[in-house]
Write a structure and sequence with these properties.
The protein is α+β, with helices and mostly antiparallel strands. The protein contains 13 helices and nine strands. It folds into three domains: 71 residues; 94 residues; 160 residues, Butyryl-CoA Dehydrogenase, subunit A, domain 3, CATH 1.20.140. The longest helix is centred in the middle third of the chain and has 40 residues.
């Protein structure tokens, strides 16, 4: 049986996890002179090569590593801004896309993830184009959010907003940026869910009741098996989308993101059932992984919003966003 994720992808995932752990393991004095993990990985050099399958898989593996290590960077916004670079004349890492999310109280709110203090911001307004704003033109307000995720709300005066990139150019760049962003979010949610599951597996092996580890009880084993099944299913779907890229049907990125939100929550909830009371405490790390899944699910469409939108589109257009068997299998049966 072929592993879902190829060996080369696992090697980059392991390298990314080591690079992300390095600043946390260093002392405060060492951290001041430490290289940025993305620089150490050569991640920025991968962005212009996203059309290449291996470069794309390596670049996106970073997000799975961030979920596992509960690390944060500006990579998501930089990845979504990449399709706009040709029109703006900027280089990778110098432009970060602000991401819209819907607030129940205030409607559409723009946020950025990670440290973007040295980057210009891309403000995209569908139907009107996109504009590049310097840091002096916006205010970044920290958002208190669980999951060890650095998020800032973008506040800017858009009354005099004028597009840097006209809508004709912005439309295809926007679609590409959203496609990449949803795959990245799905992978980071997968990584965070895997982190929660790893805690549950370790707990089931160490915690004893009636003289034996609770992991030997059938009910606990079922919970862990269901959670692992959801992990593998999500990994398979995301890996396929990363491999096929533009060959995926329209809207397939929405399927991937919706599945990530649903499966990520289920994995964390089942891990919490195995952990029991210890998983509810502030001292335990489960809530960091679970909170990250919930926070990331709110970006670029929640699983609920995307599922409803996909269902409505299928009813109206009678199209299927699933990948055809002819694309997936070398010799599909008729």
């Amino acid at each position: 049986m072929t592993p879902v994720t190829e060996q080369a992808d696992h090697e980059f995932l392991d390298a990314a996890r080591r690079a992300l752990r390095a600043p946390a393991a260093a002392s405060a004095a060492d951290t001041a002179g430490a290289a940025d993990p993305l620089d150490a990985l050569g991640w920025w050099d991968l962005l212009p090569e996203l059309a290449d399958r291996d470069a794309r898989a390596a670049a996106l593996a970073l997000f799975r590593a961030q979920g596992r290590e509960l690390s944060t960077s500006a990579a998501l916004g930089a990845l979504m801004a990449q399709p706009f670079l040709a029109a703006t004349g900027l280089s990778p890492g110098s432009l970060v896309a602000a991401i819209g999310r819907r607030s129940a109280r205030r409607g559409e709110v723009l946020v950025v993830v990670g440290d973007v203090t040295e980057a210009a911001l891309l403000i995209d307004r569908p139907g009107r184009g996109a504009a590049v704003l310097g840091r002096s033109e916006v205010e970044l307000q920290p958002v208190a959010i669980a999951g060890q995720l650095a998020v800032h709300e973008v506040r800017a005066d858009l009354s005099t907003w004028s597009p840097t990139v006209e809508e004709k150019q912005a439309e295809p760049a926007r679609a590409r940026g959203r496609f990449l962003g949803r795959l990245a979010l799905a992978l980071e949610m997968l990584g965070a869910a895997e982190g929660a599951l790893a805690l549950a597996v370790a707990h089931a092996a160490a915690r004893e009741q009636f003289g034996r580890p609770i992991g030997s009880f059938q009910a606990v084993r079922h919970l862990l098996a269901w959670a692992q099944t959801d992990c593998v299913a999500l990994e398979s779907v995301v890996a396929t989308a990363v491999r096929l890229d533009a060959a995926t049907p329209p809207g397939h990125d929405e399927v991937v993101k919706a599945l990530a939100g649903r499966n990520g929550r289920r994995i964390c909830e089942r891990a919490l059932q195995v952990l029991g009371a210890i998983g509810f405490t502030r001292e335990h790390s489960h809530h960091h992984f679970h909170s990250r899944v919930l926070a990331l699910d709110s970006l670029l469409g929640t699983s609920t919003e995307l599922t409803h939108a996909l269902g409505a589109r299928i009813r109206e257009t009678h199209t299927d966003p699933a990948v055809r068997a002819a694309v997936l299998l070398p010799n599909p049966e008729p």
